[in-house]
Structures are given as structure tokens and as C-alpha cells.
């Protein structure tokens, strides 16, 4: 199913729900039954079936019967492209819209980083200092050298750049991200990365 659809308010709420993302992504592939989807996602069959029925009622997912020995198999699928107009989203402002997609990712990063720091079982302190008119802070182990956190990275910085340099920075950054995406290795751990580059407001 390749056609692009325009979402209504009910569909927008479901399409933009981060918790449904893994299921929606699988529904855009080969049609599959509820049991197959539940196993792939590690979720109970009953709750997976309930969500599928809600998606069918909303007009997001099609339900078909595939003949087989005994009872036919109910299979589910959905178009892989949707357009969601801002006006039909639950967001009151553009900032709310951005937060709805970015906040869950940032929270996942914070949960993962805190879990690693907790496992290291050392005392953490916050160093604060002034630099170039900005008040900086850094969370670091109380002993040096501290435990190795690499390749885990958590860093924020403010730099003075021309628009040309900022564009070049963004281009090189995106190029590196694509390089890593193309070099993915099956069976290796998943590392999450989120980046924001914005001018000072």
C-alpha cells in the first residue's frame, strides 16, 4: 500500500502517539496477523488486538481475511505515508508540536544515561564556571580519572558561528549520521542519537 493519505484529528492523535510507533511501522510492511505482531513487539495478544481494532475503526488500518485450513486468518496493514496537517494535531502551538516528538526521545536519553551512571557506582558532582559570558556546568565523577563513559555522549555547547559556518556544521553532521546509518551491523546494540542546532532566540 503506497498511496499517501491526509489524516483527520482522530487519526493524527494515533499516528503521532510515540507508544504506537513500533506497531505502526510493522503494519506498513507485509500484512500480518495480530499474533505475529504481538510476538514481534513482545506484547500481549489481547492488548495488541485491541489496538489493531482501534486503528481499524479510525480508518488507519485495513483488515483482510486470508484463506487457510480451518478459520481464515485476519491480517492487518496500513499505508506507509501520511500527511498530518498541524491544524488537526492535539498541539496548541508549534512548540507543543515539537515537544510531543522530541520530549519522549530526550527522556529516553536521560533514562539511559542515568542508568549507566548508577551502575558505575561512584560519587558525582556538578562543576560550575563562567566562560565567555555564559554560566557553564558539568556533571562529573568526584575522582579523577573517572570511569570511562565513552562512547556515551551528553554535551551541550553554545558557539558563535556565521550562518555559512552553521550550515556547513549541519551538513557535515548530517553526513556523519548517514554514514553511521549505512554502516549498521545486524545483531549489534541500538544506540540512540538526537541532535538540535538552533540560533539563540
Automatic annotation (TrEMBL):
One Pfam family assigned to this protein is HTH_IclR
SUPFAM superfamilies in the record, alphabetically? Winged helix' DNA-binding domain
Q: Set out the biological process GO terms recorded for this chain's protein.
A: regulation of DNA-templated transcription
Q: Which GO terms describe its molecular function?
A: DNA binding
Annotated InterPro entries: Tscrpt_reg_IclR_N, WH_DNA-bd_sf
Ranges where the HTH iclR-type domain occurs: 29-62
This chain belongs to which protein, by name? HTH iclR-type domain-containing protein
Lineage start:
Bacteria, Thermotogati, Deinococcota, Deinococci, Deinococcales
Amino acid at each position: 500500500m503506497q498511496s499517501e493519505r491526509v489524516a483527520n484529528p482522530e487519526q493524527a492523535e494515533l499516528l503521532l502517539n510515540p507508544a504506537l510507533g513500533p506497531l505502526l511501522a510493522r503494519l506498513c510492511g507485509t500484512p500480518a496477523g495480530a499474533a505475529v505482531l504481538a510476538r514481534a513487539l513482545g506484547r500481549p495478544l489481547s492488548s495488541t488486538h485491541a489496538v489493531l481494532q482501534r486503528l481499524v475503526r479510525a480508518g488507519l488500518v485495513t483488515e483482510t481475511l486470508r484463506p487457510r485450513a480451518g478459520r481464515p486468518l485476519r491480517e492487518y496493514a496500513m499505508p506507509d505515508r501520511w500527511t498530518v496537517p498541524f491544524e488537526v494535531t492535539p498541539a496548541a502551538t508549534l512548540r507543543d508540536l515539537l515537544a510531543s516528538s522530541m520530549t519522549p526521545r530526550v527522556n529516553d536519553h536521560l533514562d539511559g544515561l542515568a542508568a549507566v551512571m548508577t551502575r558505575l557506582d561512584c560519587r558525582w558532582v556538578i562543576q560550575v564556571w563562567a566562560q565567555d559570558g555564559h554560566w557553564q556546568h558539568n556533571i562529573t565523577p568526584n575522582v579523577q580519572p573517572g570511569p570511562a563513559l565513552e562512547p556515551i555522549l551528553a554535551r551541550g555547547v553554545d558557539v558563535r558561528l556565521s550562518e555559512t559556518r552553521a550550515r556547513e556544521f549541519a551538513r557535515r553532521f548530517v553526513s556523519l549520521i548517514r554514514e553511521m546509518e549505512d554502516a549498521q551491523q545486524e545483531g549489534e546494540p541500538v544506540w540512540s542519537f538526537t541532535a538540535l542546532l538552533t540560533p539563540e532566540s
